[in-house]
Amino acid sequence: MTAIGVDIGGTKIAAGLVVDGAIVRRTRRATPRLGSAAIFDAVAGAVAELRADGPPVTALGIGAPGIVDPVTGTVRSATDTVPGWHGAEVRAELARRTGLPVAVDNDVRAMALAECRLGAARGHDLVLHVSVGTGVGGAFSRGGVPVRGERATAGEIAHLLVPTRGAKPCGCGRDDHLEAVASGPAIAAAYTALAGGEPVELPEVERRMRAGDDRARQAVTAAGALLGRVLSGLVTALDLDAVVVGGGAARLGAALLDPVARALDAETRPPQRRTPVLPALLQRDGPVLGAALLTTAIEGEHR
After folding, report:
1. What region, left, alpha or beta, does residue 144 occupy, with left being phi > 0 and alpha being psi -120 to 50 degrees?
2. How far is residue 110's CA from residue 207's CA, in Å, rounded to a whole number?
3. Domain map of the chain by residue range?
4. Is the distance from CB of 92 to CB of 73 less than 8 angstroms?
5. Do the domains at 2-110+284-301 and 123-279 have one common CATH topology?
6. How confident is the model at residue 81 (pLDDT cuts 50, 70, 90)?
7. What is the Cα–Cα distance from 64 to 115, expressed in whole angstroms?
8. According to the model, what pLDDT value does residue 297 have?
9. Residue 165 carries which DSSP code?
10. Rg (CA), the chain
C-alpha cells in the first residue's frame, strides 16, 4: 500500500506518506479557521508536499471531524470546533484538488481502524476508542472492525451528559456535555479556574503538573474521573471488553488514565468487574495510519 493519510484536527492537520503500513514522510500545519475551503487548500498543500519526489501514490485517506457519511464523503454534522465544517464535501473537493481517489471517514474511527489492526485493540472484541484532544471523540470496534451505524454516529460520546458544569463549553455550546469537562481545552480552563492568572493551554498545564503543581494535577485527575464515570454506563450497557484512549491529551499518561480506570471500575456493573483502559499504542500516528488504511478498498479496485 502506498497512500497518503491525513488527520484533520481542531488545531492541526497532520499528514503522512504511508508505504506498506509505515509512515515514511510526514508534514503538518495549523488548521485554518476560515472555513472548509481554506482547510481543503491546506490539505492539498500537504499532499503535494508529500508527493514531491516520492513514490507514486495510489489514493488519499482522510480522517475528518464530525459525523461523516463515508459513502459520499460529506460532513453531515459538525460543531464549531472546526468552524464552517458542517456540510463540507470532503471527498469531492479533495479529489478535485489532488486528482487522487479519496476515502473519508470520521477521524476517531480512522484511529480505531489503526489501533485494531496495528495497535492496542488487537486481541479485544468489543472496544470503545476515545480521543481526547481539542474535542472529545469516540468510535466502537467489534472483531477488529470499526462500527459506523446506520447514521454514522456509533461511538459519538462528546455530547453525553455529565453531572457538573464544564469550565469551557462543548463545541456545540453546552456546558454539561462530556466535551465540556474532558477535552484538552476544558482541562486547561479548569486549571485556570483553580489557579487564577492568565489562561494557559494544555501543554503548559502538563508542564506545570510534571513540575509538581498540585492544581494542575487536580484539574487532570478531575477530568479523568468524570470521563471514567460517564463511560462506565457504556461499558455496562454494551458489555465492552476494553477502552482505548488516544488523542493529544493522552500524553498526560497515567495522571489522566488512572483516574479514568478507577472511576470506570467503581461505577461499572457487575461490581468488581475490571475493564482495561489502554493508552493508544500508535499515539499521534494512529489517525494518520488509520486514514491511509481507509484507502485499502480503493487500492484493491485499482490493481
Report:
1. left
2. 29
3. 2-110+284-301, 123-279
4. yes
5. yes
6. confident
7. 17
8. 61
9. -
10. 19
CA distances (Å), origin 230, targets 71, 112, 159, 169, 181:
31, 20, 11, 17, 11
Q: Please name the residue that has the C-alpha cell 486514514.
A: 291
C-alpha cell belonging to residue 288: 494518520
Cα three-residue angle 135-153-176, rounded to 5 degrees: 45
282, 12 in Cβ contact below 8 A?
Answer: no
Pick one of 3.30.1360.120, 3.40.190.10, 3.30.420.40, 3.40.30.10 as the CATH number of 123-279: 3.30.420.40
pLDDT tens digits, one per residue of 239-284: 999 999 999 888 899 999 999 999 999 999 888 788 999 999 998 8
Query: Using CA atoms, how far apart are residues 246 and 108, in angstroms rounded to an integer?
Result: 9
Q: What is the pLDDT of residues 193-236, one digit of tens each?
A: 999 989 999 999 999 999 999 999 999 999 999 999 999 999 99
**Helix residue ranges per DSSP H, the chain:** 36-51, 90-98, 107-118, 179-182, 184-195, 202-210, 214-238, 254-267, 285-293, 296-301
Adjacent-strand bridge partners of 279: 245
Q: What is the DSSP code string of 46-113?
A: HHHHHHTTSPPP-EEEEEESSEEETTTTEEEE--TTSTT-TT-BHHHHHHHHH-S-EEEEEHHHHHHH
Amino acid identity of 216?
Answer: A
Band (pLDDT 50/70/90 cuts) for residue 300 is very low
Architecture of the 2-110+284-301 domain: 2-Layer Sandwich (3.30)
The tens digit of pLDDT for each residue in 19-28 reads 999 999 999 9
Q: Give the alpha-carbon dihedral of 188, 189, 193, 199, to 10 degrees.
A: 80
Long-range contacts: 237-241, Cβ < 8 Å, 24+?
Answer: 238/126, 238/128, 238/140, 239/126, 240/126, 240/127, 240/128, 240/275, 241/124, 241/125, 241/126, 241/127, 241/275
Question: Given CA atoms 182, 183, 189, 192 in this order, what sign does their dihedral have?
Answer: positive
